[in-house]
Design brief:
heterodimer, A: 247 residues, alpha/beta, Rossmann fold, 2 domains, six-stranded mixed β-sheet, four-stranded antiparallel β-sheet, 9 helices, globular, B: 321 residues, mainly alpha, ABC transporter involved in vitamin B12 uptake, BtuC, 0% strand
Chain lengths: 247, 321
């Protein structure tokens, strides 16, 4: 299978150690890890934001050398922050994700993300959840080959969590693109094809969601373990951590 | 926005013609007595005045819009960020302490002062600053620059420095020559032309630094360019016409309502609105009783202060709602 993404030796000083990553098209990958593990740093490094070392190729194109219009077709980055200051109308925010005007695509996304009632409203007057949907639409606008989404499911109600996953799956299949999304809720992992577990700025596990969920590494890193009814604090890891913290 | 351009351009042309012809009665009278003198009045006095009001207004509008987009803050403007005061300090230091008389060299002094003030603001408040941090840092820099300007004037070798500089520093277009207008407007035009090319990047910055960087714009470099170009444009105008407040705040605010909230796309309309505002303010100044002169900065401050308060109240409501 040819790789859509080829990241070699990507590094963010003090936040992400030298990392190699390959990703074929048509897959959805969850990036997981405890707070401060480097999930956002990995996504930012692939988007070549403040990249200190390494190189990123998407569909064979060197991302750091691509001009803005081409980059929009190669990748889209959705930051975790939903804070927007300027009163730009919702449909104009979506249009900012396009390299050239395309009102049909904007209309299509407004319909897909059910934003019809909000289309003419200033984005800074919307709720955080509504802004999340608008910003996801902006990320999808140019049909990028790689979607780098930082916590795309945060601030969304259950309907929009499921709907967003459905939209991402449909987009990745339709455009033969790939999705890399950082996720906090481990229950959402089943919706992805692959899970990358990070710790201390390094990839410590990379496999199927089932393997990752059952792995000892996950319990060690998150200090939680799976039970038949959900999740519980992993006493073994907690006690080991307590022991380590004793003087 | 496209529909607003004919209106803006018509208003610009109308205010420019009014500025050249007002007061009309004295011009007609002079033309009857001596047509050559009437022509000299227009070409030597009113033309530089009109060009300066148009150009300085455009500079304030465009740099205000660019600084607001850059600092992601609708209250950033050349006067509130301290760059106008910094430019005045640079120009006073050049004129009264270094003995510089050439208008272009004075413009360079003004640009250096503005650049220093903006660099300090950058260091103190950061690039995407909270409103309170930006305002406090801006006020502190403006006060410090104002105090330094007063000190330089008080200790200047010329005992008349304070009196001489009053009208200049308060903002005025009266009795400026064509070479002075050219010295202020050529660097400003270059600065503004380069700033106008940043519109798309500044619009992307509205989605955050990381989004702008992910599509290939370098936020740090863009910031340095915006601050540097604004300093050149504002500094050159302040060195000839003094500091004029609030136009850089009002014009971008009005322009964004024409560009559906886009901060980058507002650069050109903000320049047009700034020009119209400053020419109108200069026309109002001419209503002063004969023999009296009112600095144009007084008019812009009188109009701008209530609007500034209104923007702050509106921002507070948006934050609390």
């Amino acid at each position: 299978m040819t790789s859509l993404l080829e990241a070699r030796g990507i590094e963010l000083e003090g936040r992400l150690s030298s990392t190699n990553l390959d990703c074929p098209s048509g897959v959805m990958i969850a990036v997981i890890g405890p707070n401060g593990a480097g999930k956002t740093s990995l996504l930012r490094a692939i988007a070549t934001i403040e990249l200190t070392a390494g190189r990123v190729h998407i569909c064979g194109a060197d991302v750091s050398r691509a001009p803005p219009g081409r980059r929009m077709q190669l990748l889209a980055f959705l930051p975790a922050t939903r804070s927007l200051i300027w009163p730009i109308k919702v449909r104009d925010v979506i249009a900012l994700g396009l390299p050239s005007p395309d009102s049909e695509r904007v209309d299509e996304l407004i319909e897909t993300l059910e934003l019809q009632a909000l289309a003419q409203r200033p984005v800074n007057h919307l709720s955080t959840g509504e802004r999340s949907r608008v910003l996801l639409a902006r990320a999808l606008a140019a049909r990028p080959r790689l979607l780098l989404l930082d916590e795309p499911l945060s601030n969304l109600d259950p309907y929009w969590v499921l709907k967003s996953l459905q939209i991402l799956r449909a987009e990745s299949e339709e455009n033969d693109s790939a999705v890399l999304a950082s996720v906090h809720d481990l229950n959402m992992l089943q919706a992805f094809d692959r899970a990358i577990l990070l710790s201390g700025g390094k990839v410590v596990s990379d496999g199927s969601p089932d393997e990752t969920l059952a792995s000892r590494v996950l319990a060690d890193e998150f200090r939680v373990e799976r039970t038949s009814s959900g999740w519980r604090i992993c006493e073994r890891v907690r006690q080991a951590a307590d022991q380590r913290s004793l003087p | 926005m496209k529909r607003s351009w004919p209106f803006l351009l018509s208003a610009l042309a109308l205010t420019a013609v009014l500025s050249l012809l007002t007061p009309f009665a004295s011009l007609v009278e002079l033309r009857r007595a001596d047509p050559n003198l009437a022509w000299m009045l227009i070409s030597q006095l009113r033309l530089p005045r009109t060009l300066l009001a148009l150009g300085y207004g455009a500079v304030l509008g465009m740099t205000g819009a660019a600084l607001q987009a850059n600092f992601a803050n609708p209250l950033a403007s050349p006067d509130i960020t301290g760059s106008s005061s910094g430019a005045a300090l640079g120009a006073v230091a050049g004129a009264y302490w270094l003995g510089i008389t050439g208008p272009l060299a004075l413009a360079a002094c003004g640009a250096s002062g503005a650049a220093l003030a903006l660099a300090m603001l950058f260091l103190v408040s950061g690039r995407r600053s909270e409103t309170a941090t930006l305002l406090l840092a801006g006020v502190a820099i403006a006060l410090a620059a104002g105090a330094c300007t007063s000190l330089l004037l008080a200790l200047a070798p010329s005992p008349f420095a304070f009196y001489d500089s009053f009208e200049w520093l308060m903002g005025s277009f009266v009795d400026r020559s064509l070479p002075q207008a050219i010295a202020a407007l050529v660097p400003s035009a270059v600065g503004c032309a380069l700033l106008a090319r940043k519109a798309r990047a500044l619009d992307m910055m509205a989605l955050g630094n990381d989004v702008a960087a992910s599509v290939g714009y370098d936020p740090r470099r863009l910031s340095i360019e915006v601050v540097g170009l604004s300093a050149i444009a504002v500094g050159a105008c302040v060195s000839v016409c003094g500091a004029i407040a609030f136009v850089g705040l009002i014009a971008p605010f009005a322009a964004r309502s024409l560009t559906r909230g886009h901060p980058g796309r507002a650069l050109l309309p903000a320049a047009a609105i700034g020009s119209i505002l400053l020419v109108v303010a200069d026309l109002l100044v001419r209503l002063a009783p004969a023999g009296r002169s009112i600095p144009v900065g007084v008019i812009t401050t009188a109009i701008g202060t209530p609007l500034f308060v209104w923007i702050v109240v509106r921002m507070r409501r948006t934050v609390t709602s």
